[in-house]
Amino acid sequence: MAVKDQIRTFILNNYLFTDDKASLKDEQSFLDSGIIDSIGVMEIVLYLETEFDIKVADADISPENLDSVNQITQFIDLKRDSLEV
Amino acid sequence: MCGLAGFLGPSVGSHLVDIMLHHLQHRGPDARGQFNSDNIALGHQRLSIIAPTNGKQPFYCSNTRLAMVCNGEIFNHRALRHDLAAKKYCFQTDSDCEVILHLYAEYGIQGFTQLEGQFAFALWDERSQKLVLARDRHGILPLFFQDQRANGGGVSFASEIKSILAVNSCAPEANLAAIKQIFTFWSPLEGETPFKNIQQVKPGHALLIQGNKTEELCYWDWSFPDNHQFINNEKEALEGLQSLLTESVSSRLQADVPVASLLSGGLDSSSVIAIARDLGHKPDTYSITFSDSKEHDESSFQAQLLERYPGRHTVTDFKSSSIVNYLEETLWHTEMPLLRMAPGPIRQLSSSINEDGLKVALTGEGADEVLGGYDLFKETKIRQFWAKQPSSALRPKLLQRLYPYLNGWLTSSDAYLQSFFKQGLDQPNHPLFSHLPRWSTTQTCQQFFSEEMRDATKDHDPLAELTNRLPEAFQDWHWFNKAQYLEAHTLLSTYILPSQSDRMLMANSVEGRYPFLNHKLIEFCNQLHPKLKMRGLNEKWLLKQLMATRLPPEIINRPKQPYRAPDAAAFAHPRHHDWLNELLSPSNLLDCGYFDPTKVGFLLKKLQNKQIRSQKDNMALVGIITTQLWHRAFIQDYNKRFR
Q: Which of B28, B196, B393, B490 minimizes the number of CB atoms within 10 Å of its CB?
């Protein structure tokens, strides 16, 4: 499954409790929608580190990197690219 | 304490009240009594604590033609009895509650303001054919009623809802608005129940039922200086607290049976025990431990207190997964769905007390509301400070002091902090400012409601309903006092006192007594400047000063830890999988109609993958499970249970 699809499925199943893809737009802000809380951010970080074998530094934890499906996907791609380099 | 039940209406027979009393035997196993007249029947199940040989109820005075049944303890009964005897009132028993009858005869409803205690009673005034239902100021003791006069029926009333259900002709229906309130506040609002057409007398209120009319009167409520003219003097505050709290503990130690004490390991219950010792009493103590759940266990602090005050001590230990075994029985007694698992272990604790032959236990409940103990007060202080300068990056970082998991990485991004705690920040004068983040979190559990449930409750706004009930003076109070008022009326009276105290103790015929819920103590403390209750972010500062030399420093200085039990963790054990899958199967969920099976399925998967960590997921899971069980017990299985 493509990274974006994995992320979308994770958020849908665990925070919106649905598998209906129409419930979440890829650019939709989690913060603005109230989808996640402070524990939710921790859970996302844990999921990313476990599922994608990346390290999420303290400075990485920001809405710029983690606040939508698109942003998380972009963040993972950047992390993986930096690992390859 | 006891159980009461009764019926006002045509053709009432003693057999009807017998049926009602049958469901209250756990509240009063020692004796049963009835009073029957043309249109009224009053019944009583007695738990003999004061005057065991001469305190039988119902009471009846042939001079005043007043009859009464009471569930309660009147701690100033001796002084009241003396005054009433001087006015030539004759007492037929040595019971403390009999004073209520004569107070009413002398002073009417105003007489209730002289009562210092915990009580719920039904008083029948034969001359005026008036029924008076009243409850104590804080909601310590319950009193429910069902009014069917509009349909040609009567009024039934009882200490517990099951008594009323037992004499109805068909299964009850759920009050969906009250369910939505539970998924906002953890409980229905005062006066409401999760059963349609069954209500409760509000704390500090009396209901006067006469002919076709009903009048609701408030005889007491929390109030605070609206001009912010507080007592600021520390010495005066300490002396007042010392005197009133000592007197309160002393009066609650009075009984014709031994009095025990619950010990959580926290400041409040420890203070009660220390003061009891100062008064020369040595109550047996009872504690709960969670040996497999460090975050919930307080045994080390219990041990600290016992080292200072050794005595006979009993521990009831819980393994997380065993809490589920008691859940159905717990709900039978709470009579409402729960969003936390905390009540269950307390019922097991009361079983230990009962097995030892004890009937009364002191508890520390109420101190957090009266003296500012909850983290919510601290959070509100920080948010108020932040609201004065919402763009500040430094001010919200104070929240790290409350929530250690925020240290470091989350505060590297102000956007997260702002988002999670900012609810209402642009409205610091909003009446519900202090509680908006908490209730907002709880309301997220409503995302699991079915479409039918959403539709049926879309016009009901619990927050608006609560706001409408606030007293006129509320807006002029100090923000700290507003938070106290909201706590007293949405958590203490409707969740903690019923679900974690009275019902769980009374399930095993144990009466709880609450020294911090003495109205004179509350009235005094309400005059104190909030900074005497919370100094900086140091909660219950005044109580800590009072008890500084009498309690171990580890208990004085320990971080606030409200009593909690394992929630989702209780259900995670594989032995519960089949049961849970059946209870939350799509067909069962559709049958009951409250929740969306697809969404619940994903939550269940999260539980089984051990991924439930957040408070809201915990609450949602417990709320869904207990609503299903509650519905099964009281609605689906009504005929099996009540016929």
A: B393
Task: Determine contact: A41 vs chain B, CB below 8 A.
Answer: yes
Q: Which residues of B490-520 are buried (b: 16+ CB within 10 A; e: fewer)?
A: bbbbbbbbbbbbbbbbbbbbbbbbbbbbbbe
Q: Which is more confidently placed, B616 or B420?
A: B616
Residue type (1 letter), B399 = L
Q: Which chain A residues are closer than 8 Å to B616 by Cβ?
A: 37
The span from the CA of B567 to the CA of B293, in Å, is 11
Say which range, A33-37, B42-46, B519-523, has the weakest mean pLDDT.
A33-37
Q: What pLDDT is stored for residue B13 in this prediction?
A: 76
Contact criterion met (CB below 8 Å) for B516 and B245: yes
Q: Tally A–B CB contacts below 8 A.
A: 61
pLDDT digits (tens, 9 = 90+) for B586-626: 999 999 999 999 999 999 999 888 888 788 999 999 999 99
Q: Is the pLDDT of residue B407 over 70?
A: no
Please tell me which of the candidates B412, B441, B603 has its beta carbon nearest to residue A59: B412
Q: Do B445 and B619 touch, CB atoms closer than 8 A?
A: yes
Put simply, the answer to whether B416 touches A63 (Cβ < 8 Å) is yes
**Bridge pairing between strands B285-289 and B259-262:** parallel
Lookup: tokens for B183: 């998924």
For B611, name the nearest residue in chain A, comparing CA atoms only: A43
Query: What does the CA dihedral B187, B190, B191, B197 come to, rounded to 10 degrees?
Result: -30
Q: Which residue has the higher pLDDT, B601 or B322?
A: B601
List all residues 6 or more positions away from B364 whose beta carbon is below 8 Å from its beta carbon.
Answer: B262, B264, B266, B267, B268, B269, B270, B271, B272, B515, B516
**Of the candidates B480, B545, B525, B542, the residue with the CA atom closest to the CA atom of residue B248:** B525
**Minimal-distance CA residue of chain A relative to B410:** A61
The per-residue pLDDT for B322 is 85
What are the tens digits of pLDDT across the range B240-290? 999 999 999 999 999 999 999 999 999 999 999 999 999 999 999 999 999
| R_g over Cα of chain A | 12
Mutation to test the B interface, candidates A37, A43, A51, A55, most B Cβ within 10 Å:
A37
Kindly report the nearest CA distance between residue B638 and chain A, in angstroms. Answer: 32
Longest dimension (CA), chain B: 76
The answer to whether B69 touches B4, Cβ cutoff 8 Å, is: yes
What ipTM does this complex have? 0.90
pLDDT attached to residue B119: 98
* A18/B448 CB distance under 8 A: no
User: Can you tell me the distance from the alpha carbon of B77 to that of B79, in angstroms, rounded to the nearest whole number?
Assistant: 6
Which residues of chain A does B403 touch, with a Cβ-Cβ cutoff of 8 Å?
A: 38
CA distance B131 to B155: 10
Q: Is the pLDDT of residue A72 over 70?
A: yes
Q: Which domains does chain B have, with CATH numbers?
A: 3-218 (3.60.20.10), 223-431+475-563 (3.40.50.620)
With a CB cutoff of 8 Å and minimum separation 6, the contacts of B464 are none
Q: Which amino acid, one-letter code, is at B62?
A: S
Q: Which chain A residues are closer than 8 Å to B602 by Cβ?
A: 13-14, 17-19
Beta bridge partners of B497: none
Q: What is the mean pLDDT of chain B?
A: 94
